[in-house]
Amino acid sequence: MMSGMEWVFTALGAVVVIYYGVKLLFFTRMLYPKRWFPLPKSFFLSMGEWAVVTGASEGIGRQYAFVLAEQGMNVVIMSRTKVTLDKVAKEISETTGRMVKVVVADFTKDNIFTDIEEELKYLDIGVLVNNVGMVPSAVPRRFLEDEDLDQTIMRIINCNVRTMVKMCKIILPGMENRRKGVIVNIASGIASIPFPMYSLYAASKIFVERFSQGLQAEYRDKGIIIQAVSPFGVSTRMVGYQPTNMTMLSPQDFVKSSLQYIRAGDKTYGTICHMFLGWLLLAIPSKILHTEFMLQGLKEYVEKKQAEKRPSSVMRET
Predict the structure, then answer these.
(1) 9 contact partners, CB below 8 Å, separation of at least 6
(2) How many of the other CB atoms lie within 10 Å of CB of 33?
(3) Which of 4, 69, 106, 196 is most buried, by CB atoms within 10 Å?
(4) pLDDT tens digit string along 153-187?
(5) How far apart are CA 9 and CA 206, in angstroms?
(6) What are the b/e assignments for 290-304, b being 16+ CB within 10 Å?
């Protein structure tokens, strides 16, 4: 007969095997989203007549708006630049035949949400994509190196944090009443760990993840899907439109992939390649990532890339 200690080690071994077996099964499922997380063709339209996308004038937000319109939804597109929004609205309308409503809003400002709520008041909103976001600087830098730090703090919190919470406050009650809806909150892969040189941005995006996961636990039983999507490289203005490759995806490829994972849980990376990057980042000891050598190397690498592009003091998805 086995001794008590042998029983303990046997049980512990069994738990470890089961734990990693479940993780392997989960990984296998993520490789085949169409099989494990299938969506009916009318899935998004069944949520409601309208989709709302913030930061929709370009990049990821613009592509979400296009894809949801192609799924049969009318779309509300929101950003700060009316000329660009009107152009996108015309393209979506002419391409898909769906109605497009333009709402101009600078999400770095205070006191804009009363007007937004009035604009959305009578719409049957089935999908909300909280995409708008910004970084203080495309080039990595230490927190105190910002020339106008107080303004930067306010703008980052307003744009990346407050906007997401307020948009959920506006739209979630209607979804709860109808007992259906989808909310996609765009976070960032770099929020997987404390990320020096982008500390304020990464911290704002971990808020997006935790808030989304908490809301999903609260409203899952109401028939509402709430998901944080945490991409790494997507070729947008925020990263200087870097050339696409296996890890730097186009907005079209990223959005197409991410929507396949809508039913895959309260957080995804949106794509298989970004999921691997996330696992790799978590596997590297933080003592290595946070060394001065690594931080300086990151800064020099980004500066080199940005030198080939038009410089900008504040980059955002608008």
Answers:
(1) none
(2) 21
(3) 69
(4) 999 999 999 999 999 999 999 999 999 999 999 99
(5) 37
(6) eeeeeeeebeeebee
Helices and strands of the chain, counted as H and E runs: 13, 9
Q: Hey, what amino acid is at 223? A: G
Q: Reply yes or no on whether the pLDDT at 243 is more than 80.
A: yes
Quick one: average pLDDT of 16-41? 74
261 is catalytic: no
Q: Structure tokens of 133?
A: 């976001």
This prediction has a pTM of 0.88
- Mean pLDDT, all residues of the chain: 90
Q: Quickly tell me which residue has 């001794």 as its tokens.
A: 3
What are the residues whose beta carbons fall under 8 Å from the beta carbon of 252, sequence distance 6 or more? 63
Amino acid at 283: A
Which of 230, 22, 256 is closest to 133 using CA atoms?
230
For β-strands 50-54 and 125-130, DSSP reports them as parallel
- The active-site residue, picked from 201, 219, 261, 269, is 201
What is the share, in percent, of the chain residues with pLDDT greater than 70?
88
Cα 227 to Cα 263: distance, rounded to the nearest angstrom: 9
- Mapped onto helix, strand or coil, the DSSP state of residue 75 is strand
Query: Above pLDDT 90, what percent of the chain?
Result: 71
CA atoms within 13 A on the CB side of 261: 27
CATH number of 39-317: 3.40.50.720
Confidence of residue 313 (pLDDT cuts 50, 70, 90): very low
Burial label for 203, CB within 10 Å (0-12, 13-18, 19+), is: middle
Q: How far apart are CA 98 and CA 78, in angstroms?
A: 16
